[in-house]
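Much of the work behind modern protein science is quiet bookkeeping, done one molecule at a time. The fold becomes a row of whole numbers, each drawn from a learned catalogue of backbone shapes. The protein below has been through that process, and both of its lines are reproduced in full.
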Amino acid sequence: MSAARIDPEIEVRVPGAARALVVAAGLTLLLMLAATWSLSAGAVRVPWAVIGNTLFGLDGPRQDFIIWNSCLPRTVLALVTGGALALSGAIVQALLRNALASPKVIGINSGAALAVCLGVIAGLSPGWLPLLATGGGCIAALIVWLASLRRRASPARLALIGIAVGFLCDSAVDYLLVTAPDYQFSAPLVWMTGSLWSRGWADVTTVAPVLLPLALIALALSYRLDLIRLGDRHARGLGVNVGVERAVLLLLATALAAVSVASVGALGFVGLMAPHIARQLVGGDHRGLLPVAMLTGMVLVVLADAAGRALAPPIEISAGILTALFGAPFFVFLLLSKRGAAS
């Protein structure tokens, strides 16, 4: 009897795990190609042979300054923040049980943007902007959570309150932009479009030690998301403290998104679409979904940043503009497709 119970379960899970491994391997290969292109793109186009010589210290033509001090740190930062934003979006979608949710829904991006604008008006130096953005995103998510506790933190209540808080923060940002002198918001405007312009190793060493442990924790808690996705009643029947679990996971998603937004600006599309694409590829099991979503987010941000530098050099188009420009039609296509509608 025990063998009869175990065998069907193995038959169901092994193909799903194998599919996730194959998809992850394919995305890893695509990510390597995208990262190589990112190292070569820009006002000064670097041949791939020169990139190899520079990275591995081989004989031949090299571009040490461009690659080591400009292109490589930007690519690494795109990898780290893209993966973190995708993980944050996947967690938010699981908590709200809605594939169309994102960190933007719970007000993280809007709260970060408002905090940055207030800091600029207060005359703080640019070095404070990442810390302000992180604090603003966390405060916005905390307001959403506390407001939802008045009648239990249901997914629908979290989403509705988050949208309201986001609109409030966006309105405040619009007011500040309209009433402030033009020169005062030149740098924050670039940041709010989602850009890796002028990012270097200092940004990587500031963000990576925070985001990498958070990403590992998110991957380790993937099974908790599967339990919460069953619904509050079923999760409680399995011994899950839904309120505590949801609070911990929401805090984790907030930290992942807020730290990323603080570094590269509001790349809201990544947290929305990367989990959705991953779900189409490997299904809804978060043990496979989270790693694939993370790789997908990395690919999206690396490609967007590289394309922004390659399209019209020396002019640089912000990565956030490109992700929205190409992502929105693709998102509509998914919604109108039979498979996307079913999801």
